[in-house]
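Explain this protein:
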Amino acid sequence: MAVRQRIRKMALSKALDKYCRVVSVHKRGHLQEFYRINVLKRSALAEKNMDEITSVDIATYRDGRLATISDRTGRTVSANTVRLEMALLSALYNLARIEWGTCTHNPVEHVRKPQASSGRTRRLTSVEERRIRRALRTRNAELSVIFTLALETAMRQGEILALRWEHVDLNLGIAHLPMTKNGTARDVPLSYKARQALRECTGALSGPVFSYTSNGFKSAWRSILGGLEIEDLHFHDLRHEAVSRLFELGTLNVMEVAAISGHKSLNMLKRYTHLRATQLVSKLDVRRRQAQKFAALFVPYPAELCEEAGAVTVSFADLEHLTLPAPTREEALINAATDLLRIQARAACAGKRLPPPGAVQANDTRRVLIRPL
């Protein structure tokens, strides 16, 4: 005769505390799990015993959370946030069922999860980059270096703030990361701009490169963007921007970009690579390999067209360029193409990299695409 398992009564709030002490504390993302656990402990589920919670209760929690307005963002809680909270609950139930004896099944298992979002595709524009750089240089040199490293190396915020001088070799151009989000070490190649930025704040032979804590930096970043009135730009978007720029160079394959960024999943890496259409126009029109290499230096740039008092002016928002008015639209466009060709040729001769072309909207009469060739 089978012996029925005796259920140990335990409130979900107590189980969450135990899970935090026993499991979460050993994870690299323990701080994020701590926040999720606190959210769950404030819910109506928290005071129920684990064996009394049903799949209907879980579905009710899911729907309630999806309708909740976040105090931090002022928007409804994202589907991904709710998915992560449900995943934590599911992991807790699987552990408790086998090791703690506080339940006999997992009520989260068969409840529909919110549909995963497609991921952010926010790109940093050249105008935003210049404004942010000016503001950071005025406020704090360290902030400026952190911003440069994010765009040049594709490192995560935590990886940059954890950098130590004993792990940075400016002669070899390598930054060693002993531990990353993926749980493995990684060597990050430093571009010329990244090395120059680090040389500006070098001094100590060992110890932290930056004095900012995670919370301190987040506060400073929000303050800068608020002052500039730049909306919907997260610091993590700079990693997305950096990876996209690495692909847009056209000299690195997928595995090489993955080695720099530290992505283990190529599917995840693909999500970061939203190449600007203007970067690809010249490549579609060129057939021969040698011509393609040449044309890659002279890509089209979007420009603003302004007609006032009988004069036409064309200006490039992405480039710091002095524009001169012309009597006709046709002459202004020819002059702009000549100027763009000259700017790109000088940059190529000097080995400099120009800011990437920004987005251009179809059928926008005030914006035109200037082709240098």
About this structure: The two ends are 87 Å apart (CA to CA). The chain has 15 helices and six strands. The CA atoms of residues 130 and 272 lie 22 Å apart.
